[in-house]
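Weekly modeling sync, notes
Attendees: S.R. (lead), two postdocs, one rotation student

Agenda item 3: backlog of single-chain predictions. S.R. asked that every request posted to the team notebook include the full sequence so nobody has to chase files. The rotation student volunteered to paste the first one in as an example of the format we agreed on. Action items at the bottom.

Example entry:
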Amino acid sequence: MARAELMDFDQALELFEPVLGFEVHVELNTKTKMFSDAPNIFGAEPNTALVPLDLGLPGSLPVVNEQAVRYSISLGLALGCSIAESSRFARKNYFYPDLGKNYQISQYDEPIAYEGSVEVELEDGRLFTIPIERAHMEEDAGKLTHVGGATGRIQGAEFSLVDYNRAGVPLVEIVTKPIFGAEKDAPELAKAYVGTIRDIVRGLGISDARMERGNLRCDANVSLRPRGQEKLGTRTETKNVNSLRSVERAVRYEIQRQAAILAAGGTITQETRHWHEDTGTTSAGRPKSDADDYRYFPEPDLLPVVPSPALIQELRDALPEAPATMRRRLKADWGFTDAEFRDIVNSNLLIEVTETVREGAAPFQARKWWTGEIARIANAREVEPGTLVSPHDVSELIALVENGDLTDRLARQVLEGVIDGEGSPHEVVEARGLRVVSDDSALLAAIDEALAAQPDVLAKIQDGKVQAAGAIIGAVMKAMKGTADAARVRELVLERAQQ
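Predicted structure, as returned to the notebook:
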């Protein structure tokens, strides 16, 4: 696939105004699926978490998942939306190889929630309001695995396998209105918006929001219009982008790609685009259909959803803090400077740090480990930090350090063991024998051996050249395989040298 011509980002913004739009799909963590009693689980053997309805078999009828409706209303309220007095499901008709009945049960002109807005904070602290058009309920499709190609995509594959486990998983799709005024911040705004949605649904407890698992996916719409023109340009929709970093990169790439085409006198095709993480590019998918092409009509097997005012008020009263409000409170509670707190936010680790503090860790230590060693390992492995280790394990690791059982150096080894699946921090400590040696007799034995081996160093220490003790400390740490406390070893070396 030939790489598209790209225009310099700043030059593209001089010529064109970017207009954005996002469709974020949130998988709900209900126990069962949207319209069946099949288990809603991740990682089961293919085609085992399903019932006849999920396969579209004749005679099977859908039944709405009450908990999914409650979760959807909660999300709508958190997005500042109005909740419809009555909403209806519809059939969205087109060929789904991964939905056996060849249509998706969704909502069309009568969504559960509509007309809201979300406040998004950029890296420098500026706030940007994203207008929400609607949030509607639907079911997810199954998963296709394309076999035989070089890229794992359908292009070039010899055949495809379908796993219906995901078919019917409850979804809420959040659709924004066109977003104007992002300008040079467009890529960052895309990342910040999806991150804010992730924070909201995690705060509500309605989704695991694991982007690498597809619990939360973003379709990013980008169009350009010449400066001074009122008519919107033709949009593309980059589908199922599954990391915050990729959302940012995909929006930047599409701005540069479309600008190059338009500046050369070409036209943009209204189509879906595939994002390629390895090359940082998009490629053409299929021509993007308009609503009429889906032949929506009311789902005849389901009644309208009519939530009572009492239920809506109950869910409204249970809403957690909005992300922006929560950030201001946490910054004050933790005593962080603007720069320290922004470091957490910009690393997209606020949820992880918050949960680690909730587990009992000191805020400073939680920030240090998540934005430091864990982020370093995640960057090296090109994964999200939250996928490597749990807040509970990080809190346990911090406690081992603060209790004197581990030095920072040993703790880094323990962390690597936890990440590699060797167990909890305590289990890794015991299995690897990494606990700090606190027995002075063992330390003194190693110190005496080192001093005997280096009498010249001993003489220097006795002459008042205490910096020479570093050689003895290093030898002792090596002999103890890093399990000694260097500060305690230094104290004992200096004491021993004067005896």
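Discussion: group reviewed the output briefly. The two ends are 75 Å apart (CA to CA).
Action items: rotation student to repeat for the remaining queue; S.R. to check formatting next week.
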